[in-house]
């Protein structure tokens, strides 16, 4: 993949220092499922100045997938210190301020607080699938699909279960909304993140008033955050917030904030796919596809969520709770084998070798099946996860087939949901992909193209992911794009991305290989039939410490 040189390449070090010292920068903070990442961009938001990161992982406590809020702040502070060290190393200065900041995080889930701001129950993440009764009841009441992971489903399930904390709830928010509130004092959300809490009316870019009125169990407007769209200022960094980010005291308050967004929204921004007929696939602990609609769907489908872009346009989302975690677990085991044999290699090299072996596998993975379900998967009809590798006596167990089955398995449930979208005759001109598994060029991207039977593009910024997308949204606020020079009308997020951020971007596009398309289709048919085995495994193989 070629790199586009900046026209002022020789001047970048000096220019970058000046931008950092004067606060002409934008900082994106993203709390992903396995990593908290910070990305700093300069006056040109396509130019990354530094990144910082901290690895973390969800916990399964009392049969609930969760992250502690203590670990949220420990992780953010560690990642911020890592970013500052990178800035000092690469640019010779320490940032004391930023022009703008934005926070993004995993969408959905349940974070309720009382009037004093105290957390009432541990964070229930998007990965929990214990809200089936609430989801079904709300979907029937509203006439639209309310997925298990949405915040309103978690809230209503707590109501149905008569949980004692319900009467004390003063506010409910998402992880991004919580972090934003602690840093700025404002209880707001970007419209994309809000659309994973409660259905949004795209005409008003806020919660659907008719559906709010149908909910009789709580004053939702009093509980849910205020909704803002991309480009609107969402508060400023307070002194208390600055101390939270940087306990050393060097960071000064005052930076303007973008509306906090979900990882789906930042993924759309990072792949320049916020316009109708564009879409993207984000692969991490979860995997999901987002397709911006040009017309409403004909009917509701439990496989499809209706959310929005950060600008408020309607998006059909195919969300799968399980992405690349099981693939990573197998790669870790192969890495351990290499180390035990006296030939230790780093993680990136392990993935590179295994991915390239997958290219030598048979188009249908030789009859092997790999199920990546660590958690429940609504699209697949699974209330809990049981990762499995399944083969028949006539299948061909080779390393290439095994790894191709594992990669196909990451895309399996997603492909089932995309079949539903195709049945709605939704038009799609471009599909972009981002996430760590696309760093090995030409492998996961090729298999995804075969799974979707569509061209798949990966940008050079794909590995920076949502943290960079959030930094771009922060820059969209900071630069005060204001009025279009010709018409005087406000410039849209789509125009800003096309004209300012991606005007010189380089993409690598892979066209679907007919052999891969046919091979994946055969794999998916077996995969779909084999889900019956998964359901039996859930029923018969109890989790440790429980009984079936």
Automatic annotation (TrEMBL):
Q: Which UniProt keywords apply?
A: Carbohydrate metabolism, Kinase, Transferase, Xylose metabolism
The UniProt record lists the Carbohydrate kinase FGGY C-terminal domain at 280-476
Q: Where is the Carbohydrate kinase FGGY N-terminal domain?
A: 27-244
Tell me, which GO biological process terms does this entry list? D-xylose metabolic process
Q: What terms describe the molecular function in GO for this protein? A: kinase activity
Checking Pfam families in the record gives: FGGY_C, FGGY_N
Q: Which family does it belong to?
A: Belongs to the FGGY kinase family.
Name of the protein this chain belongs to: Sugar (Pentulose or hexulose) kinase
